[in-house]
Amino acid sequence: MVKNKILVLGGILAIALFTQACKKDKIEVKSEQSKTKGINKPLHTYGTLKITADPSYQNVIKAITSIYQVQYPEVTFDFDFKIEELAIKDLYEGKTDFAIVSKPLTKDQETYLFNKTKILYKSSPIGMDASIFITSVDNPLENISVTDIKNNLYKDDATLNFVFDYPNSANFNTINDKLGISAPKGKPIKALESSESVIDFVQKDKNAIGIIGLNTLSDTDNPKIKEYLTKVKILKISDEKGEIYEPNNPNLRTGKYPFYRLIYFLKNEKGFGIAAGLTRFTGSQQGQLIILKENLQPYYLFKREVQLNAKALETITDKK
């Protein structure tokens, strides 16, 4: 009898404890649901992102962002194309959260930016582009040497007539960095205000050589670019050994074309917003194929081959 009472009491106690546990679980689930109430969608799927970028990347940027918007229709982009130095300046001064340029921030710029925003800055290489030399199709010149470029770029008695797309642009910086030179202080730099202006200029001045970004002419399926290429041609470059290279993907990923450069996404965004989403998308297979469609060298599809066969990525890493 006593044993039966103990069993009954034990059963009642077990049921009571189980009921309390169930109530507790319901309370915890309800509490957890209340924490997430109002968060309907991830931050990278809606809103507006201001992109500050060097103008020479305009074609590839618009190709990538247009596909991103197909996936996330509630995302809009506000483009601010300006020369590389100003784009970087806007980023480290906290005026923009996202910049697209040919180099990462310096350590001093990183420190300044963190002290100003308290957000950890990140740089992400997403592909390889190049600075190229163009001239009129009527110019008999087919290639030009690194030595000739270096000896004539800033000389008063130059035998070659060069013109940049912009002063202090990504192309301006790339050429100077690769040649290990800088423009003489106070010397006027012959530069126009767009790549299109350079293309027009070299058509009219048959002996002029324009310096623009490869991406301006790389998508040969584009009717506008097809039209440009009936009027101008891209010069091949011969290195110090006399080897001649054109700016194509094999020569970019091996670093044989002398004026290759990486395309960097620089972001200083809090949380996982549109800048982070766009960066992740661009690094995905789909994003890298968009870069390939632009006839540029994807960073991730061939990353291992670039690192093993070229100094390209190592050189950039050393500069960080």
Automatic annotation (TrEMBL):
The keyword Chaperone does not apply. The keyword Signal applies. Residues 44-271 form the PBP domain. InterPro entries: PBP_domain, Phosphate_ABC_transporter. It comes from the Bacteria. Keywords: Signal. This is Substrate-binding domain-containing protein. It comes from Faecalibacter rhinopitheci.
